[in-house]
Amino acid sequence: MAASRSGASPVDKKAAKAASKAAAAEKKPGRLSQLRQVYSITRQTDRQLPLWMLGAFAGTVLLVVLVGLLVHAWWPIVLIFSIPMGVLVALVVMSRRAERFAYERASGQPGVTGQVLKNIRRGWFVEDEPVAVDPRTRDLVFRAVGRPGVALVTEGPVNRVQRLVDAERKRVSRVLGPNVPVLVLNVGDGEGQIPLRKINGKLTRMRPALTKTEASQVASRLRALGGARPPIPKGVDPMRMRPDRKGVRGR
Asked: Is 45 helix (H, G, I), strand (E, B) or coil?
């Protein structure tokens, strides 16, 4: 009765307090903490980052002040306005350099192209898994469908991955026919390839050839094809395989 008169019991209060502390601990870091973390990680690989940020800040402040003087604005207001602009430009420079170094670190890792494609803007349907795989060379082909058509994005040397591309192009054409464009983009740093950091921009800038409804229908039809299947060695029929009796009995 005493507990009910006074409200929640001391045990309940302690549990609620512990829960609130746990919730506060699980909160995402603030914007300033995220910026410090990005700066710290990028600074480890980009020793010139502070100079680039300082140059961006100073150049922006100087430019805004000069423009203010040319239009005969009150210089204290111009100076106060130029400082936030300089900070903003310095943060943009940091973000761009952090993104570039992140792509450079990820470049060459198997499957990274598929992860980058998933970050493309809306309007594209990207398969979660590669649609063609060479287990020996680890060459991959990913598929994305959008208004420009069906994009086959390769990961591997152009001349070596061409066999996978041709097979996948035939498979797609059998389902869709000749009216749907099939585009091939080779990701990499070699000749005839597109750098990893530019692949999404390249896709989004392509000229549309389908409507949104047609692109969705094409994606649904291709999704029924499934992804890559592990290859079966030639001459081996998995339905007729038998266990090695000598191995079971022991030699």
From this structure: helix
